[in-house]
Structures are given as C-alpha cells and as structure tokens.
Amino acid sequence: MEWIDEGIIVSSRHHGESSSVICLFTKEHGRHAGLVRGARNKNNSGIYQLGNGVTARWRARLTEHLGIFNCEMTDARAARLIEDNLRLEGLLSICSLIEIALPERHPYPELYSRTISFLDDFEDSASWIQNLIMWELKLLADLGFGLDLSVCALTGEKENLAYVSPRTGRAVTFAAGEPYREKLLSLPKFTIDQSSEGKISTKGDISAGLKLTEWFISRHLLSVRKTKMPAARNRLAKRWKNKI
Q1: Helical segments of the chain, H only
Q2: What is the pTM of this model?
Q3: Please, are residues 192 and 171 in contact by the beta-carbon 8 Å criterion?
Q4: Are 92 and 73 found together in one domain?
Q5: Is 23 contained in some domain?
Q6: Per residue in 81-110, pLDDT tens?
Q7: Is residue 142 within 8 Å of 161, Cβ to Cβ?
Q8: Of 32, 60, 80, which residue constitutes the final position of a domain?
C-alpha cells in the first residue's frame, strides 16, 4: 500500500533512539500516523515540528499497519513563529485539537481546506485569534456539535443576541438572558456579525470567545475521550488573559 498526500504535522512522539511516530492531518487521508526513521537526526529535526506543512509518502505492507512516512517540508511555520509566543501557542493548540478530536484515517476535506486557509493568513492577520475561535466553532460543527447562534432559543428573535446556553449551545437575547446571566456564556459579537470579519474585536469579546469554545470543546470532544483540554490551548487562554 502506498500513497502521496499533503499535510500538517499535528503530533510527534519519540520511537527508539532517533525515529519518531508522527501524525499528519492530510488533505485526502485525514489524520494519519506513520513512523519516520531518523526523524530526530540533526538534518531532519527541523522538518518534524508541529504545524509544519509537508508532502508525505506513506508505505505499508497492509492498510491496517502503522506504515512508514517519508516527508518533504513545504512550509516551515513553526520556525517563523518562534519569536511570537502567543501565535505559536495558537498553532500548537490547533494541532493538538486536531490530534485529539479527529478520528484516525477519516478524511475531512473541508476542514483541511479551512485549516490551510486560516494558517496561510495566521502570521500576518491582526484578527488571527478571533479567526482561531471561529475555526474552533466550525470544528465543533464538522464533528456534529455545532452551536445555534442565529436565533434566540426562548423568544425566536434574531436581534440583540448576547448569551449562549451552556446546556443547549443555543443563543439567547440580552433581555431574555439577563436574569440568568450568571449561568450563561457570553456571546461575542464577531461570531454572529458577518461585517466584523477581518476586523479586530475587543479584548473582552476575544476572552468570551475563548471561554465559549473551551466549554463546548471540553463537553463534546474531550469528555467522551476522557482527556483534558490540550496544554497549548490552556497556555493560549492564559497568555491572552495576562495580555489584557
């Protein structure tokens, strides 16, 4: 068995003295693991950093085997972000969420395309962190846990939406939700306002967005796997909180 595909390195773990088992999020084969011989050799170590783009050749005798990867780097994202701790945590967070949340060897072409588009703008976009939050919301939707932020769950109104029910994932207007505000999650404006795309949101809205997606990712994607929020995602939220 053999195939060639493009992908993003989302995890790597040591195997033996110099090899690694890496996992890629690929365009046509989804999240796929394989052994890379000599991955930790001096000449190769820069290739197999989380977030880097590669062209990969996978070979195995049988489909169900782990198989062997041979990779050529196409995008050294990790190295370019080494001086930007906040963005680097964002990149590592996305890799970790893909590694934890996606079933192995199941293609998600739209999610892959969306992830590549996001990463292409990642380094230069001033609104990258709100774009990351939108990526997380769409990840939830792709896996069957989309939030309904279009209309109030209590009144049917489409205006003045301000909260989200942590139980149902549905939006609530300010007036309907105010008496229960302590039990509700805040709804950031940029998640429902199409005109805000590409604009820089308030720091409070970003904090609310990080909390919103963290809640539903933990509930729907992590709890069933009995795992915790990735450390990189926690560091991202903490660094953002300290920044403001």
Answers
A1: 77-80, 85-101, 109-122, 128-142, 174-177, 203-217, 231-243
A2: 0.93
A3: yes
A4: no
A5: yes
A6: 999 999 999 999 999 999 999 999 999 999
A7: no
A8: 80
Copy the structure tokens of residue 100: 């934890």
Q: Kindly state whether residues 145 and 222 are assigned to the same domain.
A: yes
226-243 pLDDT tens trace:
899 999 999 999 999 887
| Helical H segments across 108-244, by residue range | 109-122, 128-142, 174-177, 203-217, 231-243
% of the chain surpassing 70 pLDDT: 97
Q: Tell me the CATH number at 12.
A: 2.40.50.140
Tell me the mean pLDDT in the region 186-194. 89
β-bridge mates for residue 11, sequence order: 23
Say whether both 12 and 98 belong to one domain: no
CATH code for the domain in which residue 134 is found: 1.20.1440.120
Residue 41 sits in the same domain as residue 136: no
Tokens (6 digits) for 85: 């701790």
The whole-number pLDDT of residue 152 equals 96
- In angstroms, the CA 111 to CA 8 distance is 12
Boundaries of domain holding 59: 2-80
DSSP state of 185: E
Question: Could you give the CA distance from residue 47 to residue 45 in angstroms, rounded to a whole number?
Answer: 5
The distance of Cα 53 from the centroid of its chain, to the nearest Å, equals 15
Question: Looking at the domain assignment, is residue 199 inside a domain?
Answer: yes
Residue 77 token pair? 């994202």
